[in-house]
Amino acid sequence: MIAPAYRPIQDYALVGDCHGSALVDRQGSIDWCCLERFDEDPVFCRVLDQKLGGFLSLTPDGESTSERAYVPSTNILRTELRTPPGRLEVIDFMPVGRAPGASVHDYVTLAAPGCLVRMIRCVEGRVGGEVRYKPSIDFARTPARLSTHALGVLADAGPALTSDITFALQRDEAVGRFDLSAGQSHWLAVSRKPVDPERLQGWLDVTTAFWREWSDYCRYDGPYREHVLRSALALKALTYAPSGAIVAAATTSLPEEIGGERNWDYRYCWLRDSAFTLHAFAALGYSGEAKRFAQFLESACTSTHPRVQIMYGINGEAQLDERRLDHLEGYEGSRPVRTGNGAHTQQQLDVYGEVLDWALLHTALGGQFGRESRQFLRGLADFIRDNWENAGQGLWEMRGPPRHHVFGKLMSWVAIDRAITLFGAEPELVRLRQQIADAVLSRGIDPGGGYLLQAFDHPDVDAAQLRAWAVNFPLPPGVFEKTIEAIRAQLGQGDFLQRYRSEDGLSGGEGAFVICSFWLVDALLACGNVSEARAMFDRLLQRANDVGLYSEELEPATGRFLGNFPQAFSHLAMIEAAVNLDLAERHGAAALRGTHADRARQGVSAIAGPRALWAAFRKTRRVGRWRSSRHSTMSS
Question: Which residues are within 8 A (CB) of 8 and not within 5 positions of it... i.e. 6 or more apart?
Fold first, then answer.
């Protein structure tokens, strides 16, 4: 059989259960799936090798067209396949719900059976077709050894397919036929062991109730609620419930340049990305995720204290050794495919500032840290005190020589500033804060252009400096405006920005980073250019795919998605920009001044208001109780 062409990355949609995830394309082929952990070997990986990689596909007879959407307020995907004789409805989801005994407000203690479920129903006419199942074993290094059983297909050292469709074996694939008339249906489930088909409808009910109940807590009620909620649901799906970790993306090795080598494994927890994600959750009124992440942070960082890694495994693993999977072709020939991530050994000073900035936000919204957590956070400031003058790899994880990245120095200032707020104005910290600020102002600003540089003694610009306004760093008047101008002139292509154009130790190029465009929206708002920011934000919303998801990067000219997908960075930036737009339009650019904690305090009253918050709270309590008793508790 000739392998089909690679599907565009934007053709995929995500389903997940806060443990693992899967990618489903427009025609209903599931080409990526990790069942129980985001970072495990996938049971399907055709997205990385169209010939070797496993998949679960559904192909109606004859020509067909498709239309799809998420079931409202959920991460359950509904695809409609239309053929001349009739129409099929395909429902894909991964079951998840609150653990037995969990309260209505507990969205942290989750249960999931580690299963991918597909339901197929003919809604009109008559439709026949074929289902093909090919599991991946050891990243498709080993052909699957399949056998049939009464309710499906087993794979040695691999997943089980349970289904009411009869399958025949063709080497390492199983092929089944279906022929459905209106009202008739079939089901399939992929899991580590066969599942009881009597549970499937109950799992769908529980999962629907769980996602809708979680969505009901979203406090944002601005003009972009549908888009904001979709991004929030994507971020929630990227949280690993057992530990509280938040992964950067659901995939590994989707390329930043087609045919290039910039292919990384993003199925780990970057502390910076997680802090940004929790900013977004806080702006929407979610607090449970922050409490759980605080526990993960303390647990994960214990093994490397006093140094903090930029990333950890989803159970707090510190060793994330990078290895190449050279037997795989890679997406559209983009090699190498990698697992692990060598950047876990890099020093990036900004991470310390991001974590302390989030800690201040957490406390501003009523969160608390225990004695050991406070000692850990205070230790981050001590580390910056001893290391802020060192060079590093920077926010973007360059693999060239270390530099004195200006963003790292800005965030070192943030680390000390937030420590002063959290722990008191110790004279040593106050002097250090001023010392770091003086270094940035003397060495981090281009003497001719008056804008922030990428690094000390380097003339390049960096889109990361668009965040200077958000952390409340004391820049002289006009410097930030000139920084925006320089970044747009040197890195811009329409609404899109490169991260940088300087040498980074890697060959080839990359696309425009989606997060940088949303950062530009925020920067324009901070300068009072509200109408320009809104127009740009509206255009960026049109660059999401048909189900509202973003990848890490895209090609500005074509809109083609690049990089791992879906990308937490992109979605959290979209949420933050939407919330900031709402604040600026209601109260002016002055409402954006200060720290994330300051804006969060304003958002609590400005976006919802005390009465609206109380009404929403009472409403979700009623809904939650009903659903808790009827649907949303799951037993595995």
Answer: 560, 561
Q: Are strands 492-493 and 245-246 parallel, antiparallel or unpaired?
A: unpaired
Token pair recorded at residue 171: 């080497």
pLDDT digits (tens, 9 = 90+) for 351-384: 999 999 999 999 998 888 988 889 999 999 999 9
Question: Taken in order 466, 469, 474, 479, is the CA torsion positive or negative?
Answer: positive
Find the mean pLDDT for residues 438-463.
Answer: 96
- The residue behind tokens 């802090």 is 275
pTM of the model: 0.94
CB neighbour class for 372 (10 Å; exposed up to 12, middle 13-18, buried from 19): exposed
Inter-residue contact 394 to 403 (CB < 8 Å): yes
Name the strand (E) or helix (H) holding 574.
Answer: helix 568-587
286 vs 104 pLDDT, higher one: 286
How many other C-beta atoms are found inside a 10 Å radius of the C-beta of residue 20? 26
Q: What is the CA radius of gyration of the chain?
A: 25
H-only helix segments in 189-348: 200-216, 225-237, 271-284, 288-302
As a whole number of angstroms, the distance between CA 25 and CA 11 comes to 5
Give φ, ψ of 264 to 5 degrees.
Answer: -125, 155
Question: What is the rounded distance in angstroms from the CA atom of residue 596 to the CA atom of residue 283?
Answer: 9
pLDDT tens-digit map of 8-57 = 999 999 999 999 999 999 999 999 999 999 999 999 999 999 999 999 99
Quick check: 336 and 139 in contact, CB under 8 A? no
**What are the residue ranges of helices labelled H in 367-451?**
371-387, 406-423, 427-443
